[in-house]
Design a protein that fits this description.
The protein has about 190 residues and is α+β, with helices and mostly antiparallel strands. Among the domains are: about 35 residues; about 80 residues, no CATH class. It is about 40% helix and about 25% strand. It is built from 6 helices and 8 strands, in the order βββββααβααααββ. The strands form 3 sheets. A 3-stranded antiparallel beta sheet has the order 1-2-3, with no helix packed on it. It has a 3-stranded mixed beta sheet with strand order 5-4-6. A hairpin with a 5-residue loop joins strand 7 and strand 8. It is elongated, with a radius of gyration of 25 Å. The structure holds zinc ion (ZN). The site of zinc ion has 8 residues, from loops. The site of zinc ion (ZN) has 8 residues, from loops.
Length: about 190
């Protein structure tokens, strides 16, 4: 911090304390060159972030909107509201730290997925399917395959069994594959 008296750039901090109800830090400094004392305030800088949606339209990043979407997608997955709030805070902090002021909705979706994948696979799959990350049933099954490579909890295994049943409407020996025209057909293994 440049000294306001002699423009020297080095100073030492004599005292730091919270100010403006915790919104800023007030620091009393002493110039190492001329020994004059001066005060600085440190605040978190909030710069609006613009989200570019799939259709190319732009809107301001809205943390509460993201949270509502995540709460809806993560119902009955064991994710607590408090944990989702923390994730949204982390994502917002991450976006604030980036040099770019624009972010695509897809990037935000990917950030959410990165968090959910780490801690709750059921929530991860639910969010991914709700937000259309899967281009088709093939992507969905590939995601399930990737998850099966990791140790899974019993609740996930249960969910995968029931969803596999929903998808194929048949027993476990039936799997799904994509034919060349993109339609889904059942293949006996
Ligand atoms: Zn000075």
């Amino acid at each position: 911090m440049q000294c306001p008296y002699c423009q020297h750039t080095n100073s030492r901090v004599l005292e730091s304390r919270s100010s403006e109800g915790g919104q800023s830090i007030r620091r009393r400094r002493e110039c190492l060159n001329c020994k004059h004392r001066f005060t600085t305030y440190e605040r978190i800088e909030f710069v609006p972030i613009t989200v570019i949606k799939h259709d190319g339209k732009k809107e301001s990043f809205d943390a509460s909107k993201l949270l509502r979407g995540m709460v809806r997608a993560c119902e009955k997955t064991g994710m607590t509201h408090q944990r989702l709030e923390t994730i949204v805070d982390d994502i917002e902090a991450h976006l604030q730290q980036r040099p770019q002021r624009e972010v695509t909705s897809e990037e935000i979706g990917q950030l959410v997925l990165n968090y959910l994948r780490e801690e709750n696979e059921v929530a991860y799959i639910r969010f991914a399917s709700v937000y259309g990350r899967f281009k088709g049933i093939k992507d969905f099954l590939e995601t399930l395959d990737q998850l099966q490579e990791k140790p899974v909890t019993s609740s996930v295994t249960q969910w995968q069994k029931s969803s596999a049943k929903d998808l194929s409407n048949s027993d476990a020996s039936t799997c799904l594959s994509l034919s060349q025209n993109g339609s889904v057909k059942k293949v006996k293994s």
